[in-house]
Each structure stands twice: as C-alpha cells, then as structure tokens.
Amino acid sequence: MRPFTYVRPGDAAEAVAAAAAPDAAYLGGGTNLVDLMRLGVATPGTLVDVTRVAGDEIEELPGGEVRVGAAVRNADLAGHPLIRRRYPMLAQAVVAGASGQIRNMATVAGNLLQRTRCPYFQDVTKPCNKRNPGSGCPARDGEHRDLAVLGHSAACVATHPSDMAVAMAALGAVVHVAGADGPRALPLPGLHRLPGDHPERDTLLRPGDLITAVDLPVLPMAARSRYRKVRDRASFAFAVVSVAAALEVDHGSGGPVVRDCRLALGGVAHTPWRAEAAETALRGGPATEEAFARAAGAELAAARPLPGNAFKVPLARNLIVRTLAGLVEGSS
Amino acid sequence: MNTTEDDPAAGAVTADLRLRVNDRSRPVCVDTRETLLDTLRERLDLTGAKKGCDHGQCGACTVLLDGRRVKSCLVLTVTADDREITTVEGLARDGGLHPLQEAFVANDALQCGYCTPGQLCSALGMLAEAAQGWPSAVTPTDAGDGEVRLDEAEIRERMSGNLCRCGAYRGMVEAIGEVAR
Question: Which of A27, A88, A105 sits opposite B70 (nearest CB)?
Fold first, then answer.
C-alpha cells in the first residue's frame, strides 16, 4: 500500500480545503476504500477522514423531507423509524446489502460512491479502462456474468454495486455537495453517469467535492414500497438484479389502475437505473401483470446483453412484474 | 489526529496515539497504513481476532468498536484513537467466561476454533442490535417498532458476515438462540 498522510478535519470547509492536496481522497467507513488501497487499485497520498464532519443525523425538514447526514452509518439508516415508516424500500435495500459489521461501518455517502466489483477493476494485473484509462476491457470477452446489460459502452460494462442507491434513485433523493466552488445539489439518479468513453469517472462530482447530506423527498406512495434483490446466495452477496418499486393504485369499478409509480433497477448498469420508460408505460394504465410485463418490456427494449449475462433481461422483467404485483396485492 | 512524515526515506507516515482496548489505555506508534487487526495482533499481543481473508468478507477479525461490531481488517488504526475497542479477550468477566462463550462450549459451536473469536464478538454486537429493534432482511422493515424475535432464520441472516469453514453453524445458532432467550 502506498504511504499516505492522514488528516482529520474539524468541519466540512476544512475537509474540502484538505482535499485540495494532490491525490487526496475522503475516507468514510473504509469498507470499500481500505480494501481497494490494499489491492493497489486506490493509491491516495492523503486520506481526509470525514466520518466526524459530514453529518451523522437523520432529521425531518420543515417541508417534510427527511435529511440524512452523509456520515450516517448504513445500519442507522435502515433502523431509523422515519426511514422504515416512510421509505420501507430504502430500509429493505440497506439490510439486503453487505453484512451486519459492514453496515455498522459504511456511511451513506461512501455507499453512493463505492466502486464497481467488476473482477477486472479489482485486479491490478489486468487491463481495465475504469482503473487505467485506455488499457482495454477484458470483461466484454471475458467474465461478465454479473455485469451490465443497460447503458454500457465499448469501453466499460461495469455495474454499480449499491443496493441503497437503487432505492434512493427510485425516490429521487437529492445529494448535497460542498465543493471548492460552494454548495450544490444533484438529484438522483443524476449523481452517477454512464461510462461512455470515460468509465474512470463514476459520477458527476468534481475533484474535492464532499457529499454532506442526502434529502429524501416527500413521497406518500413510498410508504408502501418494496426492494427485491436476486443474488447468488441467501445473504451477504451483491445483487445479480434488484428492483426498487413504489406503486399508488386506484381500486375503481373497472379494476385497479396505476395512479403513480417509481421504479429503479440495480445490478444492470453503471448507475442505479431509474426505469423511466417503464414508469411512463405504467402511469394511468391497468394494474395487471400483463400491463406490468409490457412496461418492463418497454424499459428492457434498450438492453444489450452480452452472451454471459443475457439471463439478466428476463430476470429483470420477471422481478419487476412480481414486485409490482406484490404491491398491488398489498394495496386493496 | 494528524500525521507526520517522519521517515521520508521509507516513505512511511506514522502516528502516536492511545487506543482504549478492553478497558485499558494502550499507547502505540503506528504506520497510517496499519489496520486495527494488525495493531491488535502484532503490537498489543491480542491475537484473539483472526486474519482470515483480510478483505472484510469472512468476519474472523470482528471486534466491537464503541459497542458495535466491525471488521477490524477494514479499520485503519489511526481512525480508532478515541474509540472503545473490545476484543474477544475482553469478554470474560471476574475470571469466568461470558455467558455466550459458555453457550458456545455447551452447544459444540466450534470445531477448529479459528472463526470463534469473530463469531463471539459478532454475536454480541448482533444481540445488541436486535435488542434495539433493528431490522434485517428476513423481518418486515416497515413495522418500525416491532420486537425482534431471534429465531433460526433471523440468527442466520444477522450472522451472515461470519463464515465458518468447519460448518459449525448449527451449534452456533443454538448457542446464540439460547443466550437470546
């Protein structure tokens, strides 16, 4: 591991100033970064520990939104009554990820900014356009079973590994950032970017930007929402495919109708994937399995699977249908 | 807690700090790259916590940090200078084993024993989490105020961060369930 200087700033402004050092990185829970440093994938010269300055409170704002401090630990997010009551899919997403120990350590901002678990990215003996731009992508012709089917590029087929971020993308959570140019806000899923020709850039953050908080919007239908995750073992595994869904259904004489919905997919793209085409297809239509399958098809028409991960497309379709159908059953 | 480059030839950066481990204050001088697991084992002679994978996947290194279970292979020691650290060596009280340790023995909850210190610390952290009503992937999270009943499915899910290559899970589930009741 490359030697590094450790800095513990007193507040966010000090943190941003410290991060101006060359090769500086922010340290949250360390559950991903420390491992990447050990693997030689991340080589910061300065670590700026922001676990005590980035905010560790969850509070309701005057407008009814819920503000989650960037340094809130994942376990505290999932266990908080406001999150469990108003945004159950977010609490479910968090407890569906990692292990008890990791959730006690990992922060909300660190979860959003964790790197892909693509095996080539994590192996410094292999080419990888994300780790070493221009070196190539062996995943396309190699081991890509777990990688992207939507929005990937010739340069990169990596997936974003987070569960939490999928639920936040469905909710349209707003990420607050402090930077050298002052504060700004990025609504999810607009924090992350598709790989294009620059897979080394996971997000739209600029060097030195510090996430300070995430605001969850007022969204009554999220009180009945669901996160479902398909993984290779029963616990402590990344998503093969996951779905975060909220559904508002009118039960009229002509059968149930979708008044509004939110849908996002995990394990399928370089970003948490907000399924806007499916949402558009669903709104105002019948709340039936046939309609859900058509909406899923509308979203997945854009899928370009590779030979080893083509199974993800029907898996995502079935998961969308089952999750939405479950929400209808629970609504009558 | 800032650090200085006092060994520019080697490039190492070190920090002097005091760790509170098992109710004792211990001064150490560590390389910033050092993990809490390595500090405990190599500098403080506390070899209970084990290095299994060194990647946060096996749980053999689990200790309690301010009462919460963490993987010490992913904690940089410089970040832990004012935290309360409890290792498996700190569980016994008044010369006797902790009730959870007794239950592990009574239920044959180990074979080779390598993962056991991590399992014990993890289980203690888990019992405290359950007592606070924290949700898991096998309980409905939207209840919000429900009491957690630690049945077999709950214990297995909540302990999934600790692997046992001997497969002594059955005894561990029994032992943890016994202490939970």
Answer: A105
Q: How many CA atoms lie within 13 A of B165 on its CB side?
A: 9
Residue A226 has pLDDT above 90, yes or no: yes
> What are chain A's domains?
5-49 (3.30.43.10), 221-329 (3.30.390.50)
Residues 211-250 of A with CB under 8 A from B: 223, 234-236
Q: Report the mean per-residue pLDDT for chain B.
A: 93
Q: How many CB pairs under 8 A join A and B?
A: 134
Same domain, B118 and B64: no
Asked if the Cβ–Cβ distance from B144 to A34 is below 8 Å, we say: no
Q: What is the ipTM of this complex?
A: 0.96
Q: Which two tokens stand for residue A121?
A: 């990215």
> A99 and B59 in contact by Cβ < 8 A?
yes
Residues 6+ apart with CB under 8 A from B29: B14, B15, B16, B17
Supply the pLDDT for residue A22: 87
Compute the nearest-CA separation of B48 from chain A (Å). 17
Q: Specify the pTM.
A: 0.97
What pLDDT band is residue A97 in, cutting at 50, 70 and 90? Answer: very high
Query: Is B62:B37 a contact under the CB 8 Å cutoff?
Result: no
